[in-house]
Specification:
about 15% helix; alpha+beta; about 575 residues; F-box_dom
């Protein structure tokens, strides 16, 4: 008899132990089940056993990891860089197996993105907002915000489109890729009175020197993940749904007019499953809450005690929609109490499948109303949150669908600079009598901070909470990964302040402007101030060799001032 091949040289020449060689004959479906329960470190170890396991891990394991941990990272956007990597590997290595799969390349890129976000390895850029530059220069000794004649930009981002609203102009551009910078390519001049079916084309020439301020855009939210449909709120109280067909064509899909000129402070969208039409909620600065379900529109007037009284909001005459004689919306008009002392000063709204939350000014700064749909749409008895003192909540958010953060956690940005987290499942507890909600966690820097104006989720796993500050173009980033497996109240709640593992950066130098809106993708952090559209690209230092000025930042655990880098 001839000599039997050694098990050490089985599986295509690889050297493996006899016990391990038997595993190489396990069916593929069993291997896939095993791989689902292994951490990423085990993938790297198995890849070094033999060529067959290397091929198995490259073709299947990294794909499993990619779908489970990084579902929002695009393979197509990184494919060109993977091809460059493969060509480089073929030129520099003798083994034809030296070049790894696209899935492995993307997983490695995602792991490096974690480091880029944590250590601020980035490329920083900004551009002027053309429409914002028309604001008049205030007299000596008086800042712009005291005059009231200033732009408050808004921002929305999706997988396909990025939208920036400044005054009555809407800028549309493709969402940036890993190395491509955003650009405000097409400008559309909007009119809150436009009827459904109106096709808009890019405006030509320079930005108009004077427009009707009641048509100013005050809020934007994407309806779908691609941002191919947008909800826009206006200064005159109207709400529109726009369909973005291309950077050259935008269509007015719906228009919800308003009787009173109560400026829209915020809009929110909830998109049900099974391709149902999206629900839209809007809140005016005077406390008028409207919910639009298809063609149906319901309105309530709120007061500081949380009482929501049904009201009507239908334009009664064409005169109510005529141009105002005012040259601009003054700060005094916006902040004046509602007529007759009825109403509340409201700032933000968030619509969920089972509830709608409203942020306002008062000792009870957030009211959360259950949505009752037994006979039409009604609001149930609300629960509320507060800080035992008069305060304001300018931003509300829940984690996006692709995040591992539970969707029932409500994040509220307060005037004192903190972000408090609430478990909204208590709304569904039968027989609950206590109406006040306690925070399960509080995210805040150790030293005093400015009010939170905007909230967003970013990072490769949408595990970072981004809070836009009220001054100095400040943006604060909190790592909320500790909430991924939250099921029951934390042991040290309520009001548990969590370890500060994030950082605070100044996106722009030499400015006192708030971050009016922030948005984020796995690779970018974007925002708008009174005159700038800025972005931080965390992917380009990993793929190219960019050059950009550093930005100043400090860690929440260490207040020492540092500067970002362009190299990992």
């Amino acid at each position: 008899m001839g000599r039997q091949p050694s098990a050490l040289h089985a599986a295509g020449g690889g050297i493996v132990a006899p016990a391990a060689s038997a595993l190489l004959h396990v069916p593929l479906d069993v291997w896939l089940l095993i791989l689902r329960h292994l951490p990423a470190a085990s993938y790297a170890a198995l890849s070094q056993v033999c060529r067959r396991l290397l091929h198995l891990i490259d073709q299947h394991a990294w794909r499993v990891l990619l779908l489970s941990l990084y579902p929002i990272i695009s393979l197509s956007s990184l494919a060109p860089f993977h091809r460059e990597y493969v060509e480089h590997a073929k030129r520099t290595r003798s083994s034809r197996l030296a070049a790894r799969s696209l899935e492995w390349f993307v997983c490695r890129h995602a792991a490096q993105l974690h480091t880029s976000w944590n250590e601020l390895v980035l490329e920083a850029q900004s551009i002027d907002l053309p429409a914002a530059l028309r604001a008049k220069i205030p007299p000596a000794g008086r800042p712009r915000w005291q005059r009231g004649d200033f732009a408050i930009p808004t921002l929305a981002i999706g997988d396909s489109w990025t939208a920036v609203g400044v005054r009555c102009d809407l800028f549309i551009a493709p969402t940036p890729g890993p190395t491509s910078p955003p650009a405000l390519e097409a400008r559309f001049t909007l009119d809150s009175r436009s009827q459904p079916g109106t096709m808009l084309t890019p405006a030509q020439g320079r930005v108009a020197a004077k427009t009707d301020p009641w048509h100013d855009i005050t809020a934007i939210r994407p309806v779908d993940a691609a941002a191919s449909r947008l909800v826009v709120g206006y200064a005159d109280g109207s709400v529109q749904v726009l369909a973005v067909h291309s950077s050259k064509s935008v269509e007015v899909h719906k228009t919800f007019a308003s009787m009173g000129r109560f400026e829209i402070a915020g809009v929110s969208v909830f998109s049900p499953e099974h391709d149902e039409e999206a629900w839209i909620a809007s809140i005016s600065k005077r406390g008028q809450l409207r919910v639009h379900l298809g063609a149906e529109s319901i309105a309530w007037q709120m007061d500081e005690d949380g009482t929501a009284s049904p009201t009507t909001d239908t334009p009664d005459s064409e005169s109510s929609r005529s141009s105002t004689p005012r040259s601009f919306r003054s700060a005094a008009f916006n902040n004046a109490p509602a007529e007759g002392g009825v109403g509340a000063r409201a700032w933000s709204v968030l619509l969920h499948e089972r509830w709608v939350a409203v942020g306002m000014t008062g000792e009870k700064a957030v009211y959360i109303y259950p949505l009752l749909r037994s006979a039409g749409l009604e609001l149930g008895e609300p629960m509320y949150v507060g800080t035992r003192q008069r305060t304001s909540v300018f931003a509300l958010a829940t984690a996006p669908a692709h995040s591992h953060i539970p969707s029932w956690l409500l994040f509220a940005g307060f005037y004192d600079g903190s972000v408090r987290v609430y478990d909204t499942r208590s709304l569904n507890q039968p027989g609950r009598r206590r109406r006040e909600m306690d925070a399960i966690a509080v995210l805040k820097e150790h030293h005093p901070t400015d009010a939170v104006y905007s909230l967003a989720f970013g990072g490769p796993r949408a595990h970072l909470l981004i809070a836009g500050g009220a001054r100095h173009a400040q943006v604060r980033v909190f790592d909320i990964e500790f909430l991924e497996h939250y099921t029951v109240p934390l042991l040290d709640s309520p009001g548990a302040t969590k370890p500060n593992t994030g950082w605070t950066a100044f996106a722009l130098p030499s400015t006192d402007s708030p971050q009016y809106a922030v948005a984020a993708t796995p690779t970018h952090l974007l925002g708008v101030t009174d005159r700038k559209f800025w972005w931080l690209n965390f992917a380009s230092p990993l793929l190219t060799h960019p050059r950009s000025p550093p930005i100043a930042y400090f860690g929440h655990a260490n207040p020492e001032l540092l500067y970002s880098s362009c190299t990992l």
